[in-house]
Amino acid sequence: MTPEGGSEAEDSVARGGPDEVSPVSAVAGSGTSDSGASGPGISDFGISSGVPARAGGVEAEPRPYDPRFDLATVMRRITSAMVGANLTETDIHDAAVKLAGVADDLEHRAGPGRRRRSQPDPAGHPQEFFPTSPVIGFANPVSPPVVVESVEGGLAGLAWFDYQYEGPPACVHGGVIAMVFDEILGAAIIAAGCPGMTGTLTIRYRKPTPLRTPLRLEARCTDHQGRKVHARGAIYHEDLLTAEAEGVFIQLVPERFIDMVSQIAPAADVLEQVLDDARGLGLVPMSHPQG
After folding, report:
1. Nearest of 122, 123, 120 to residue 132 by alpha carbon
2. Residue 146 forms part of a structural domain
3. pTM of the predicted model as reported, rounded to 2 decimal places
4. Model pLDDT for residues 248-276, shown as the tens digit of each residue
5. For the chain, how many helices (H) and strands (E)?
6. How many whole angstroms separate alpha carbon 87 and alpha carbon 144?
7. The dihedral formed by the CA atoms of 244, 128, 149 and 219, expressed in degrees to the nearest 10
8. Structurally, how many domains does the chain consist of?
9. Is there a domain that residue 222 lies in?
């Protein structure tokens, strides 16, 4: 699945650790749908209207640069230093005091409610599907981030995991690997035009996956029958397979999903955002009530 020769994702990660991965160069590359067909409009919540979002094969325009990328990059550096660097307790205490002031200022400046999530475009660049994802989101400091791009037959990715992702000594935590597979398999089925939510995820840990070294990832949609969508993925260290996964994803009945969210949404503004997304995609009537 990985194309011969270098890719933009591979070039980004090969330069070194996560601080060397440029969100601009990774995201602003050409983003085209490999399916050759129009894809449905898809929300962050995995429900599809079945309405073409854009003619397949048309290059996606990258989103404007997001200043959250810079903040997330700095926060990753701080986390890596806190977890893995040889610092004294005084060093860490002093940093905590300074960062508490930054956090206080951001919370003071924040307006009410939460920031709206975006709607991924299946014909666009897969790096843009979820900007705040904890796996591929350049705007989320929790993400490594994994750099992904469309290739013939699916997605290819590169990752570099620092100390904060450690499980066994010098190895990536197995739970982190599971999260990465969940994300890249989900992105692969979005790119294939058949999004869904995870039903089952089966992972085989073949070899230890090492920290602080470039890793190659692959993911593709393998089957679509009814509401069930199947996908497979793999992680390689150089040419060594370290882990592989199979996932079954379930395409949602929009009305049922909206009713489910109305019961579990932590706040009214979150539910209203889901409903707004669904209305905009034509999934539910404009007058659909909450709850």
Report:
1. 120
2. yes
3. 0.74
4. 999 877 777 777 777 776 666 667 776 76
5. 7, 8
6. 22
7. 20
8. 1
9. yes
